[in-house]
Design brief:
heterodimer, A: 417 residues, alpha+beta, Arc Repressor Mutant, subunit A, SH3 type barrels, 4 domains, 5-stranded antiparallel β-sheet, 4-stranded antiparallel β-sheet, B: 303 residues, Alpha-Beta Plaits, extended
């Protein structure tokens, strides 16, 4: 098939974009091993969509292509562009604009026969007019009714179609508001679609600490929200961390957990196979099939809300086998370092902070998985006076890591000075 | 369904071409400009021949159209549900007074359906009416390019006044705070909105000629990354929002360069420290010294 910059299936480009954006060190050969000739097409598409952000580096292994985006500068998430590149047929686009026009200009609902006749009239101005049979038109109208842009009503046994007037809500919405939420709310790409309907506007908002990769998972996230709102069970497929194997899980989706410190999104769900609530990375989910309503949704949701008082991140199970793990550490700070206790307070999540004296604070928490707290504890390196984990293996690992850091910077001997 | 041609750049471009054709026959150059505005780098190579060859029978080769009304696609159900969801967010009142505009629509999500679990707890108070009024005045000042006078407590707790020309607002999801970036005399031009006590339009003489513009001073840090305990993915995702470059230097080791705003250096230091021995900063030397200084201080803590 010849190359086209628009695509039918999002999943393949989703993988490539993530690889180019997050990693970006693979050579052409490494991609080719994985997926044959498609690498060149995918790279060309990304260049067409995101040319300004594409970078190249020549290495002994070949040319590396990567996406380099400072999301503090770009203002609008450039990855949204991929969602606006769906392919269609000549018939789809012709039918779309004619259908929307004839339904908008009609003052009454129309039957399929009337619609077909009017379409022929629209097309009669062309030398070689297209023809659309009734079943094609009916199929398109059914699709549009499902999307909510066409209404159906029955007149006797005949189904009639009429247009929907529903852009008023959008007229009430400020472009800055859509701009803000398209960057910060879940499924923000939908806000970007709405923004496309507004007159061009100069954005006055910028975003710091802004993770944009989750935009690639919008369709999956949207399906999960629809299932959650409907209290439905789902069967989902996901790939393992290295992408090697695919697993299928039958779960009751309960809530989405979002990190604004690494950009990951997780589904918290009751897994019927394992009979427990667990987390799944949204970026690893490849398909979601919505099934029957779960009679136990409310019960599982309540259980999860209770669990949150012991969740640091998203892990609901310890590595030690204990139900809960205790972690505590103390930090010391000088008179002019009052930002330290403030930091502890604002970043403590489910933990507690005690002031031991004017220069010392203790943080403690009982969590499902204390290993999740470790990266945060390390941010206090230079002032940690005590660190204790109920899982002694974890404590040894933590202290060993610090020694390893000293070694990395040749600071093993004496006081390191 | 989100991945649909209904939202595509091509449909948006064609809608605009039709709008123009309803006004006057669209010329080739005009068509190209419309396509460039709405679609992608190579789109014109598809759209132009599709019209000229009469494959898309909505624009005639002479630039006129058989469509009667300017295209205005109604909102889809999913668009309305998303809009309803954000209308339930307290931050929406920064922008809108009347948020009850889709009364019969089921939201796509509510605050019960998702949690941002690692944002800081001292974010701005969006429920505060005075905060919202200040926010709107600042937005208006940015839009209409007029100076404002603000009062705020400085870092020493003293009430101070500033006259400044607001440029744009910056929001951090991690901090859950807005900052105002502005130009003015003798200050660095970044103000936390949460610390502004009052704000009004300034009608006096505001000579912007001697204002200091906020131009970020960018710097780079280079570090080696050792891929143990899934560090490769964790580190690269964590720093994904920076302009960055990664290259493989060994079987499980990588060299990563990120560009950051010099003002955020301390934050970058502690973020790198959070990855423990999986990351070693190698240059520039002053940055390496910042890491070493912290580790040396840690050694003296007797852990």
């Amino acid at each position: 098939m010849s190359y086209s910059e628009v695509i039918k299936n999002f999943n393949k480009i989703r993988d490539y974009m993530r690889e180019f954006f997050v990693y970006g060190f693979k050579s052409r050969d490494e991609y080719r091993k994985k997926s044959g000739r498609s690498y060149d097409d995918e790279r060309r598409r990304l260049e067409s969509w995101l040319g300004d952000y594409m970078k190249f580096r020549q290495t002994p292994e070949g040319k590396n292509v990567f996406l380099s985006i400072d999301s503090r500068v770009t203002r609008h998430n450039p990855l949204f562009k991929a969602w606006k590149a769906k392919s269609f047929t000549d018939g789809d686009i012709t039918l779309h604009f004619i259908l929307m026009d004839l339904l908008a200009t009609s003052d009454r609902p129309l039957t399929i026969i009337e619609i077909a006749e009017q379409i022929d009239t629209y097309l009669s101005v062309f030398d070689d007019p297209k023809t659309f049979d009734e079943s094609t038109i009916r199929k398109k109208l059914k699709e549009y009714a499902a999307e909510g842009i066409v209404c159906t009503e029955k007149q006797g046994k005949t189904v009639c179609y009429k247009g929907v007037q529903s852009t008023e809500a959008l007229d009430h919405c400020d472009a800055d508001m859509l701009d803000f939420f398209s960057e910060t709310a879940p499924c923000g790409v939908i806000g970007s679609f709405l923004l496309d309907k507004k007159k061009e506007h100069q954005g006055i908002l910028a975003f710091k600490h802004h993770y944009i990769t989750s935009a690639l998972d919008s369709e999956i996230l949207c399906s999960l929200f629809l299932a959650i709102r409907g209290k439905k069970t789902i069967t989902m497929e996901s790939v393992s961390r290295n992408g090697g194997c695919v697993s299928e899980n039958h779960v009751v989706p309960l809530q989405i957990m979002i990190s604004v410190q690494n950009g990951r999104q997780y589904l918290m769900a009751y897994d019927t196979g394992y009979n427990r609530i667990t987390s799944f990375r949204v970026d690893k989910i490849t398909s979601v099939k919505t099934e029957e309503e779960s009679g136990q949704f409310d019960e599982h949701r309540e259980q999860f809300e209770r669990m949150k008082q012991h969740l640091w991140g998203v892990s609901t199970q310890s590595r030690s086998g204990d139900r809960l793990e205790h972690v505590e550490f103390t930090v010391r700070y000088a008179d002019d370092e009052q930002h330290i206790p403030k930091r502890l307070e604002r970043e403590k999540r489910c933990g507690t902070v005690e002031r031991i004296d004017a220069h010392t604070c203790r943080f403690s928490a009982d969590v499902y998985d204390a290993s999740e707290v470790i990266p945060w504890i390390r941010t206090f390196l230079c002032r940690l006076t005590e660190v204790h984990f109920s899982d002694k293996r974890l404590e040894r690992q933590f202290k060993h890591d610090i020694k390893e850091m000293y070694a990395l910077y040749d600071l093993e001997g004496g006081d390191g000075s | 369904m989100i991945f649909s041609e209904l939202y595509s750049a091509y449909y948006n471009a064609v809608a605009d071409i039709i709008r123009t054709a309803l006004d006057h026959p669209v010329q080739k150059g005009e068509l190209r400009r419309i396509v460039e505005k709405h679609a992608f780098g190579e789109s014109v190579l598809s759209i132009e021949p599709a019209i000229l060859e009469e494959r898309w029978q909505i624009i005639k080769p002479d630039g006129t159209t058989n469509i009667r009304l300017a295209p205005q696609m109604p909102l889809t159900t999913i668009q309305k549900r998303w809009l309803k969801a954000v209308l339930l967010d307290p931050r929406v009142r920064l922008f809108l007074d009347d948020t009850d505009i889709l009364p019969d629509v089921e939201p796509l999500f509510t605050k019960d359906d998702y949690t941002i679990f690692d944002k800081y707890a001292d974010g701005d108070d969006y429920e505060d009416e005075a905060y919202r009024q200040r926010f709107r005045l600042i937005m208006d000042a940015i839009r209409n390019e007029y100076p404002i006078r603000i009062e705020m407590n400085n870092r020493h707790g003293r009430r101070v006044q500033r006259i400044l020309m607001p440029k744009y607002l910056e929001y951090s999801e991690k901090d859950d705070k807005f900052r105002l970036i502005a130009s003015g005399k003798t200050f660095n031009g970044i103000f936390n909105l949460g610390r502004i006590l009052s704000c009004e339009r300034f009608h006096g003489d505001c000579n912007t000629g001697d204002h200091t513009e906020v131009i970020p001073v960018m710097d780079s840090v280079v570090f080696e990354l050792y891929d143990r305990r899934n560090a490769l993915e964790r580190v690269l995702l964590h720093f994904a929002h920076f302009e960055k470059e990664a290259e493989r230097i060994g079987k499980d080791s990588y060299r990563v360069t990120i560009r950051y705003d010099k003002d955020d250096e301390t934050e970058i230091v502690i973020r790198l420290l959070s990855f423990g021995p999986m990351v070693k900063v190698i240059e520039p030397e002053p940055f390496v010294d910042l890491i070493k200084k912290r580790l040396i201080a840690q050694k003296s803590c007797g852990l």
